[in-house]
Amino acid sequence: MQRTDYLNPSELKCQCAKAANRLEEDQRALETVYQSIGRFAGDSEIESTAFDTLKQQLADYQLLIEGMQIANDADAADFRSLGDLAGSEVLDGENIFCQMENANNMKESYLSSEVFFRRKMAAEGEPLLSLYYWRKAEQYARLADNSQRLYEKWLEKTERFDEIAASTAHLFADSGDIESWIQKGLDEIGGAFQMGRYMPVFQSEWRSQIRNAGVRLAMCCGDKGGDQNGPYTLWQRGEASDRESLRELVRSYEEYSDYSDEEIGMLLTRLNSEGCGYVAFANIIVDAYRRKEEEFEKIFGFPLFLEDVNGDTYVNYDHLIVDLYCASDNHNRAGIAGWTYDVYNADEDSSATFGRGTTQEDRVYRFERYMRSYGLQAGIENIECTPDEIYGRCEEEISQGKRIIISTCPVRLVDEADEPAYMDGGHAMTVTGLMDDGRIEVSSWGEKYYITPEDSDYREPDKNRARDAYIRIQSVEL
Hints:
Mean pLDDT: 90
Number of helices: 15
Oligomer: single chain
Helix content: 55-70%
Radius of gyration: 31 Å
Largest sheet: 6 strands, antiparallel
Distance between the termini: 33 Å
């Protein structure tokens, strides 16, 4: 800490909240522009060579807008972190250093007085006077000790300031890196027209840097979340090293320690049939550990991000999903006389390749248990509300830094092109965004979809052929 340093946490928290809110407003504006460009570029009624050239350029601008959104997200998160790390005590460098100097000066004065009286005590032959001088010396020694403790108390404030400075030193670095690549992209796009044609350099470094930074910082740039069919696809079509990695992971759990390759294939098939809840929670874990990939690997024992042969970063969803599934599926809470314990029900699923899925209660117990196995805490709350309250409750929970799992029956989704994706039965998904038109953005099957909570299938379940129609949410805090 320097003498000129000053920290007022209440003012800083207020400024950080305003800055984060402003960035969120910018995000909504950027998303509007992004969607407008997509709709224009996707207009099937416009056909010409010039329009095809324009679409190539617009696609590059969309990538740059994604980069801007990533930078904004990173800055908003950093502003919130800065507010959280600021503590609650005003730290005024000028006052602190003055108090330290005053305490130190008082200590030196008291020590001088102690020495003075100890000398007088040593030279005094009268016992009563010698005792008096000894008591005075002891009194000044205690005062000197008190002054030293006071000095150390003020010194702790400088150390607290330095700790805050150190813990926030890394903030706002990610957005700065992305912004430099955005500028390079803008410069290249502006000079990419040759003889009336747009000639982009697809292997440009700015493209891969923005995409890779995006995946590491947010669910974007091709990362749309985990897919419950991903592990089975990797098992069937991946490299030999991929199969060995999955084999080792599955067999690391006692319930599957002796599984053959055929049984592992059936297990992953069953995961595909019932794994939506596990994928939803895996998405949340990934989101919580972006920008903390070293911490993730230290805790879970495998990397959060991998790179393909082209050097492109992708999330290691498959490994996490399989780990979560093998650790949790078919585990249930049991109890007797107030004592609870875990029970593994091998007969929970209807077959070796088809599972029953998870209920809200399953997810609370299984996901909290999974996190505890790694020494982590998770709080999962079932939120009771009507379909027309879903959006508002999601907004409220997200504003508190929590994440949402939404489950519906039947499934009524539309994709980014507004094409429907319907199915009967229940399905759990991760909420990834709230749209201005009242729709909820979700990650499902490794893609982006949208739910309308007030769909008649949820508001009027008696008119739907699904006997147990519902829309429900769970709030997750890690």
